[in-house]
Each structure stands twice: as C-alpha cells, then as structure tokens.
Amino acid sequence: MLELIIFFVAAVLAVVGALAMVFSRNAVHSALFLLLNLAMLAVLYLLLNAQFIAVAQIVVYAGAIVVLVLFVIMLLGAELGEDIPTWLTPKVVFVVLLGLVLLTITGSAVFEYLEYVDRGPRGPVTPDLVAQVGSVELLGISLFTDYLLAFELTSVLLLVGIVGVVVLGGWRRVQHKGQGADE
C-alpha cells in the first residue's frame, strides 16, 4: 500500500513538473521544474527496483543535463525574461517542420535498427541471464551493442539542441542591437 501511495505521489509530481516546465515563462523556473520531473522519474525507477537506472537518472540527467541547461540559460541571458514580440514567425515554423522531419527520419532509422536487432541471434533477457552476467553489466553490454545507434543519436540530439539555443540566442541579441541602433 505504501508503494502505491509513493507511486501516485511521484507520478503526479512528475506530470505537474513536466507541465509546469512547459508552461513556465521564466527559463530558470522551467529548468528547476525539469529537475523536479527528473527526480520524480528516479523515484519511479526505484519503485520498479531499478536502482542503477535511478542513480544514473539523478547523476546524468538531474545533475549534468540540468546544470548544462542552466549554464546555457545564464550564458544567453535568457533568465532576464526578454519579451519576444511573436513566436510564430516563418523562421520558427520552418525550424519546427525541419525538426519534425529530422525526428521522423531518426525515429524510422531507430525503429528499423531495433527490428534488425530483434531478429538477431540474441535471446530474451531472462532472470538466469541477469544472475549469470549481472544487471549493470548486461545493461552496459545491451546499451553499447544493441542500442548503440539510439545512444549516439541521443547525444547528437542534445548537441544540436545546445547549438540551436546558442545560435537562436545570438540571433536575438543581434536583432536587439540592430533595433537599438535605429533609435
């Protein structure tokens, strides 16, 4: 019964944190809500008896990624809350459509790769295999053999996101400097 209560509390907090992150106007607050969401996901992993994934969730995502996001926010000065006149511009629409095409292509490649891996000589993960090899070692082997493409695509996606934020932030600064010169 206690696990069920913890599950519902963590699940509700994870969903609330995700929604608050998306709808928050302040970028720093959004990053903090992301931290809340990732911490609650770690709690859910603990309830699933996946301690390694929970610790990796805290160390990698809640630690490194959120710090990186906050660093980019502070670097670009987005915490100042500059008013953006409109967000629905042709450039934004083009970037969103290009992103959707990229995600579709990436998703198709990953799906095809996973279908290929499923047809391979490896069998399913059984409790005997976990006891023989070890769950963390089995996870590492699986991550760097069967799911290497997805792992690498995730790192490229994070890199593209950071470069995109820096480019868009620099583009906004150039626009604001150009407006200030006209006055």
Number of domains: 2
| Mean pLDDT across every amino acid position | 76
Tell me, what's the shape?
Answer: globular
For the CA atoms, what is the radius of gyration? 21 Å
For this entry, what is the oligomeric state of its chains?
single chain
Number of strands: 0
Query: Helix fraction?
Result: over 70%
| Sheet with most strands | none
Estimated share of beta-strand residues: under 5%
First and last CA, distance? 66 Å
Please trace the helix and strand order, writing H or E for each element: HHHHHHH
Backbone structural class: mainly alpha
Could you name the ranges where pLDDT drops below 50 across 5 or more consecutive residues?
none
Can you count the helices? Answer: 7
